[in-house]
Amino acid sequence: MITIEEALEGSTPLAQKVRARGPFRDAEAMIAAMRAALPTLSQDEKIATLNAHPRIGADPTRLSARSLREQGADSIPELERLNAEYEQRFGFRFVVFVNRRTKQEVLHALRERLARSREEELDTGLQAIVDIAEDRLRS
């Protein structure tokens, strides 16, 4: 099983809270602890957790090996532009469960989510963080 930090892209506030709840008997227990810890995060901790995740479509040389496999190495200029717009609007990174989605599906999700509220996006982004971690833990 991979570590909490590998699943959550580093020693984020979420990873720290999950680690404090361990040790875990299996991936299911770790995932349950992640979901249970989300509501305990402060606003700043939520943002720090989201901002620790690599940008979708980021320069491939700046991605972790796991993120590079999940996102693919190609980058789309529109994705970069929309990412910048998202970060400007909400003040944190766009996070979506990418694995097995096309770039066009990711672009569609990003466009839709730009129309949402900041609170909705905080919640959706954090749920995506856990979905990504769950996929990593089960791989």
What's the short story on this structure?
With 139 residues, this protein is mostly helical. It contains eight helices and no strands.
Q: Could you characterize the architecture of this molecule?
A:
It is built from eight helices and no strands. The protein is an all-alpha fold. The chain has a single domain (4-138), classed as Oxo-4-hydroxy-4-carboxy-5-ureidoimidazoline decarboxylase (UraD-like). Helix 3 (27-37) runs antiparallel to helix 8 (118-138). It is globular. The mean pLDDT is 88.
Total domain count: 1
Instruction: Report the end-to-end length measured between terminal Cα atoms.
Output: 9 Å
Look at the structure and give the mean pLDDT. 88
* CATH fold-level label: UraD-like
What is the CATH class? Answer: Mainly Alpha
Low-confidence stretches: none
Tell me about the largest β-sheet. none
Secondary-structure-based class equals mainly alpha
Q: Can you say what the CATH homologous superfamily is?
A: Oxo-4-hydroxy-4-carboxy-5-ureidoimidazoline decarboxylase
